[in-house]
Amino acid sequence: xxxxxxxxxxxEQIIDKDLQEGKYEKICxxxxxxxNGYLHIGHAKSILLNYGLAQQYHGxxxxxxxxxxxxxxxxxxxxxxxxxxxWLGADWGDHLYxxxxxxxxxxxxxxxxxxxxxxxxxxxxxxxxxxxxGTLTEPGKESPYRNRSxxxxxxxxxxxxxxxxxxxxxxxxAKIDMASPNMxxxxxxxxxxxxxxxxxxxxxxxxxxxxxFAHPLEDAFEGVTHSICTLEFEDHRPLYxxxxxxxxxxxxxxxxEFAKLYLTNVVTGKxxxxxxxxxxxxxxxxxxxxxSIAALRRRxxxxxxxxxxxxxxxxSKANSSVDYAMLEYCIREDLKLKKPRMMAILDPVKLVIDNxxxxxxxxxxxxxxxxxxxxxxxxxxxxxxxxxxxxxxxVEPPRKYxxxxxxxxxxxxxxxxxxxTGYEADENGVVHTVHCTYDPATKxxxxxxxxxxxxxxxxxxxxxxxxxxxxxxxxxxDEAKGVYxxxxxLNLNPxxxxxxxxxxxxxxLAEAKPYDSFQFVRNGFFCADSHDxxxxxxxxxxxxxxxxxxxxxxx
Length: 555
Ligand code: ATP
Ligand code: MG
What we know:
Layout: H1 10-20, E1 28-31, H2 41-56, E2 60-65, H3 75-88, E3 96-98, H4 103-115, E4 119-122, H5 126-132, H6 150-161, E5 171-174, E6 189-193, E7 207-209, H7 211-222, E8 226-230, H8 237-247, E9 254-258, E10 261-263, H9 270-278, H10 293-299, H11 303-313, E11 320-322, H12 324-335, E12 341-342, E13 344-345, E14 348-353, E15 362-367, E16 377-382, E17 385-389, E18 409-412, E19 417-425, E20 431-439, E21 456-457, E22 460-461, E23 466-473, E24 497-505, E25 517-520, E26 524-528, E27 539-544
Parallel strand pairs: 1-2, 2-3, 8-9, 10-11, 12-25, 14-20, 18-21, 23-27
Antiparallel strand pairs: 4-5, 5-6, 6-7, 13-24, 14-17, 15-16, 17-22, 18-19, 19-20, 23-24, 25-26, 26-27
The chain binds adenosine-5'-triphosphate and magnesium ion (MG).
């Protein structure tokens, strides 16, 4: 396998052992979402884990929609989930499945269980079933219907299937052990009557299998070998094993649980996100402040950065929460050598070069990425009037200030040295224009006499720059106070979105297409928004700033 020196995670160790013992010839994993919402960063972990294992062991990866619950499912979600998984690069090839395609086989499996005396039709109400179930400290009571004959059970189950039974009047239950210390084993319901329309099977069925019965069967039908799920299903494993054993599969799949991925102070719950969307607090499920896969993509994250993040998180059995800063670290790492470093002014002040000889534009050459020559160079327009960042000039600078103030010389990136000679402010003292002179001998950014400057600032040509809208983001949650208020509502950060309408970018950036991303010198990494960018008028989302306090955890 890839790198023997790297220690194997616990799932790889299980698979190694199974293969050594010849339990399976080839491994098969799957990702089984319920099509009832958008996928988020946690799902990405599960997708990349399952897909990655299949790749690593030259096995198979199945994409399966777990669509056994017609109440909550929507076709819309099937399409968005497929798009997200494709974007992440998890290629299922021909192995796209729908659990609903197995309804016939699931029904037959249930009939087999009845014939073996391992399942019975029960007339207790949902309420009574709950009462009879007992508690963690007390055993349950057997249902009075538990000892119906096989013939009677077969006839009743068929009646359920044929629509002769009302919703909730009867269920099919596995006959296991009402005294089991594991509550899941106390004769769990495996089929219910529900006269509901299904998005794929229409009105063919009015009985639907329960998750704990359906899921192991789906895995087994597909020849899944390692069924990886999250920790909350640990207590369901005995039932999973019971189902595949009693239904009689030759090479039954094995369930393995791992800890969910949680991000500190980040909302992933469908219920909360739905509310944010419905109340118009965010701009849809892919609002760049959210961590749905669609939102991360719109913000400008790449599949590579998400993969790096998931790998850094590792796979474990212990629940923990990871800082969003780690995700930011990964996108910076991914983009820093891949993307051109361009100039954009987010808070403009005009800089006038009083001794610049003409109103013409001259073109200067700039490397696209000083750390990656392969990205080549570009020509940028320069002239008498420029825009610089407001924070790059100060009337009364503090002692260590290295940028422009009257009397200092600084470098204009990729251009010339300029010396500040004065400024103009409005009646409130707000500076709008800074004056300077330039030294034509310093073209390219170096003085022939070898003199140095302390600061380098970026700029754009006032004549040629393109005005654009830029959006800056902060966490949608007020981190200082935590995710939830006392009443359970979300603790929103009023500053999570800042829209800057008066930004200027170098002309090449006007051509940016949705999802194109760039480094804006000193301001961070930005991505052209896929909803609001227009031809020639991109809107830029800040993916992440350049500064970070994040340190990679020690391996
Ligand atoms: P629901 O509450 O609707 O069940 P869900 O997030 O569990 O939501 P599923 O469609 O059931 O959604 O999940 C698909 C797969 O993704 C499951 O195998 C589940 O274990 C896994 N998964 C869900 N959330 C996370 C997470 N935070 N980290 C890792 N894996 C996750
Ligand atoms: Mg689930």
